[in-house]
Write a structure and sequence with these properties.
single chain, 823 residues, alpha+beta, six-stranded mixed beta barrel, 17% strand
């Protein structure tokens, strides 16, 4: 092989393409589709999974979580006291904590409010991450005044990229408090906070958690940092913690050190720390680990599409080799070696693949746009997807490999026949047995690949339908949701309750509103808060051994507005006011766990510390799904807002018509009460839709790849049966001359197609069963070896293969026996 011979073969291939432009264009387009789609999916995988996080030495960063051994919950937030204690781990060079507002705060610039996500962080967080501001200073700069750091995106969006932004002030409201915050600096464009999306996914968010600004943690801003004695708080777990390993430390060493610290604290403080361990994960694994299986499934699916495309192109090249048999024979007779003929065939396929790769760059951009449009906003790092240098190198490498794959079989079969055999065959068009077997093998492989991918898509489709059919425990139609921040001037309980009364009457008076309710934790779209519960009359135990349940507040007629059924007792009324005996409503799961064989109505419970008052259970309501539609409802109880008014509740407004149409009226009514405009206005149907966003994203792409693979497989069967019908023209003529009917000819060719498809379906079924454990984690309500899915896909593939063969088989029925014999 020489460069001169390669250049000659490239020139020859281009001349051949000019003589057959339709063949060249269709082949290049097919390869462009496969290569472009694969390159686009690699761009996603590269950005999300492979690209390092934008921090200094990101591989040495870890996340630290509390581990609740009683509930088998591996990733609970950390208490401020434990976060402080973890600094003593000898294998860690630094430990910093943070707290994100789990609902948006509201920033006001030039009287124009906007919801934002704010994180309070330890002053040394940015030094730990190894990132400095683009403008200004960080919190741990001793000369820096108190203030906030803002993201580059917020700086551009709301501050116009002002280079003199340091020192400007913002009014920030939320959580019943207000503050005027000076801007301390602007972080670089590529900086993303490590828990921007991670904490949201861990705690149940279904919307993007892109951090807009940061400010340093202080006792003034967050009194929960300390307990009543002024010591770091041990009982409330709400911190996210990031640590950096010493250069010679390992993850296992860090785990051992922190587990030892957690065990010691459980011994020292059994009332708050017994039963709490520690979980350590690499930061990168924490950020993207949950989406990795889904992305790898997508990458594998689009790879299957490329393989099917390669098979179709290989079959086309086999057909061209058969048509150019005499040309190859002449070249062989003139002295061309088999290796030289193989080189020429491979160069032709390589040229096709490279051209397909170039055209595939356009396909890649289109697919990336489609992926970004389909991807849910909370998908980690999805905004970082871009066609960079590694993506370009992948596209080039994939083009070269594709060229080899599609050319090796045609090249080998084309060079296998000797010149003497080819020239002796003359004008006969019957293909060699080798070429026929190669085509049959390729079709079987194509159908098998299509079967494997489509089964995966079918399982995901059935899972998605199962999730959609889950009863969330409430009626989501005609519900408008929002978060309202109680104005800071209503600081005491009486004035806050007076504001709530005005808010309720104002919203109920709006035309089209049928019920108004609220809660502190919105189903399917917010976080969960857990607490220990003690039942009156039961033997006293260590508080760490008490059952842990979820707690929420009910605002207004929450159960009526959500249409959550009251199955026993009653719901809250206005008589359950601040001076009345404390009351609680529990759900079915709570009753089943704590009162399995008794009536809970009238029993008393208390949560938190022994200083809390006993609450009488007045009712039992149905279970609702808070974390996701796929999670089993957990034990939970509600207290009424009249006995503990929250400062930033979520409201739900049930309407007679389209809830979105009332958004403007609701926003205006709340502003007229002197409150900030409500944040995060969404319909409950939109929240439910967002809760299955990742599953819908994976299903959409795998389903598209599966449908494409079915179409390509059918096209391959059509092409092969067309070739077979053309090559067997003489045989068909003889059969017809000897008395065979056209129906016999049709049956002959269709049965051949069915046999090939059946062989591929059998192999594909075995392959799908073999890889089913990889898909199992994405399934819900359906088994990985679901017989209905396998049977339905097999039947569909068999029917499509037979239908694809029908047209060429039908054409073969009309062969004139006399003409066929003359040919």
């Amino acid at each position: 092989m020489t460069w001169e011979s390669i250049r000659s073969d490239v020139s020859f291939a281009l001349r051949q393409f000019r003589r057959a432009p339709l063949f060249a264009c269709l082949t290049i387009a097919s390869l462009a589709l496969g290569i472009g789609a694969n390159t686009a999916m690699f761009a996603v995988v590269n950005a999300v999974l492979l690209r390092p996080l934008p921090y200094d030495e990101p591989d040495s960063l870890v996340t630290i979580w509390s581990n609740n051994t009683k509930n088998d919950e591996r990733q609970n937030p950390v208490s401020p006291a434990n976060a402080e204690a973890f600094r003593a781990a000898p294998s860690l060079a630094g430990v910093e904590g943070f707290y994100s507002f789990l609902t948006p705060a509201q920033v006001v610039l030039a009287s124009d409010p906007e919801p934002v996500i704010v994180s309070q962080v330890n002053p040394g967080m940015f030094t730990l991450l190894g990132r400095s501001p683009l403008i200004g200073r960080t919190f741990d700069d001793p000369d820096a005044p108190d203030g906030a750091l803002v993201s580059y995106q917020f700086w551009q969006r709301r501050l116009g990229g002002d280079p003199n932004v340091v020192g400007r002030t913002m009014s920030l409201t939320g959580g019943g408090a207000a503050a005027v915050i000076p801007i301390l600096g602007v972080m670089p464009e590529d900086f993303t906070f490590p828990y921007g999306t991670m904490l949201g996914r861990t705690l149940g968010f279904t919307r993007s958690q892109v951090v807009d600004m940061w400010w340093p943690i202080s006792r003034e801003r967050d009194p929960r940092l300390v307990d009543a004695t002024g010591a770091p708080n041990r009982s409330i777990h709400y911190f996210g913690v990031v640590g950096r390993l010493h250069p010679d430390a390992t993850i296992d060493r860090v785990r051992a050190d922190l587990e030892a610290i957690a065990a010691q604290r459980a011994s020292d403080y059994p009332d708050t720390n017994a039963g709490w361990g520690v979980t350590v994960l690499p930061l990168h694994e924490q950020a993207v680990g949950t989406i990795r299986p889904a992305l790898l499934i997508l990458l594998g699916g689009v790879g299957v599409v490329l393989l099917i495309t390669c098979i179709n192109v290989a079959n086309v090249l086999l057909a061209r080799a058969a048509g150019r048999g005499r040309d190859l024979a002449v070249r062989s007779a003139l002295g061309a070696s088999r290796s030289r003929l193989i080189q020429q065939s491979l160069v032709e396929s390589m040229v096709l693949a490279v051209l397909g790769g170039v055209a595939g760059l356009g396909v890649m951009m289109l697919v990336i746009r489609a992926v970004l449009a389909l991807a849910p906003s909370h998908l980690p790092r999805i905004g970082e997807v871009s066609p960079d240098l590694p993506v370009g190198l992948f596209a080039f490498t994939l083009s070269v490999v594709t060229g080899i794959v599609v050319g090796v079989i045609p090249a080998a079969t084309a060079a296998r026949s000797t010149a003497q055999e080819s020239l002796r065959d003359g004008a006969r068009t019957t293909a060699s047995r080798t070429r026929q077997n190669a085509r049959a093998a390729l079709i079987v492989a194509e159908v098998a690949l299509a079967m494997t991918l489509t089964v995966a898509g079918g399982l995901l489709l059935r899972s998605f339908v199962s999730v959609l059919n889950v009863d969330p425990g409430f009626t989501e139609e005609h519900l408008l949701t929002m978060q309202v921040s109680v104005p800071a001037q209503y600081a005491d309980t009486p004035s806050r309750l007076a504001f709530y009364d005005r808010l309720e009457s104002t919203l109920e008076a709006l035309p089209g509103v049928t019920a108004v309710g609220g809660t502190t934790r919105l189903p399917l779209g917010s976080t969960n808060v857990t607490t220990y519960v003690e039942v009156e009359g039961r033997p006293a135990v260590n508080r760490a051994d008490l059952p842990e349940v979820e707690m929420r507040r009910a605002v207004f007629d929450y159960f009526e507005a959500m249409q959550i059924p009251v199955v026993r007792g009653r719901s809250f009324t206005r008589d359950d006011h601040a001076e009345a005996p404390p009351a609680a409503v529990i759900n079915n799961a709570f009753a089943a766990r704590l009162f399995p064989n008794e009536d809970p109505i009238g029993r008393r419970i208390r949560f938190g510390s022994p200083n809390q008052p006993w609450m009488t259970i007045i009712g039992v309501v149905g279970d609702i799904r808070h974390g996701s539609l796929e999670e089993v409802p957990r034990p939970e109880f509600y207290i009424t807002y009249r006995q503990g008014p929250p400062v930033g509740p979520f409201l739900v407004v049930r309407t007679a018509g389209d809830p979105a149409a009332l958004a403007t009226a609701v926003r205006q009514a709340i502003r007229e009460l002197g409150a900030d405009p409500p944040m995060d206005l969404r319909t409950m149907e939109a929240i439910r839709s967002a809760s299955v966003g990742t599953r819908r994203f994976v299903l959409s792409l795998v389903g598209a790849f599966g449908a494409l693979s079915l179409g390509l497989a059918s096209l391959g069967v059509f092409g092969v049966i067309t070739l077979i019908a053309a090559e067997r023209t003489t045989e068909v003529g003889i059969r017809l001359a000897l008395g065979a009917t056209p129906a016999d000819v049709l049956r002959l060719l269709l049965s051949h197609a069915a046999r090939l498809a059946a062989a591929g379906i059998l192999i594909g079924t075995l392959a799908a069963m073999a890889i089913s454990p990889l898909v199992e984690a994405q399934l819900f309500g359906v088994r990985r070896l679901d017989p209905l899915t396998y049977a339905a896909v097999a039947l569909a593939l068999l029917l499509m293969s037979v239908l694809a063969a029908y047209i060429p088989a039908r054409r073969a029925m009309s062969v004139d026996p006399a003409q066929a014999l003359r040919n």
